[in-house]
Specification:
globular; alpha+beta; Alpha-Beta Plaits; single chain; 4 strands
Length: 89
């Protein structure tokens, strides 16, 4: 399993979840867990994914960032180990 953390942050708009999930499905990425909230018009989503079928994760990360720009949000994709190291106390 190749676990990655995807975060999506920005102003709420119709279709954010649909666009991100469609991209992931088209690239054979399995969503293991997902959490989404909207606070005062700001959208925040965190996903844990299994990208075992993705051959170039760097390209996927760049494409997700570009998708984010298209839909008006910021999308980051990090390997689980990097995410854990950055957020440990």
């Amino acid at each position: 399993m190749k676990k990655f953390i995807i975060t999506v942050v920005g102003h709420d708009a119709v279709g954010i979840i649909a666009r991100v999930c469609t991209y992931l499905a088209e690239h054979q990425v399995n969503i293991l867990d997902i959490s989404q909230t909207i606070v005062d018009g700001y959208f925040n989503m965190m996903m844990i994914i299994d990208a075992v079928k993705v051959t170039d994760v760097t390209q996927m990360s760049e494409e997700l960032a570009k998708l984010g720009e298209e839909i008006g949000v910021v999308i980051h994709c990090q390997h689980e180990d990097i995410f854990n190291m950055m957020h440990r106390i």
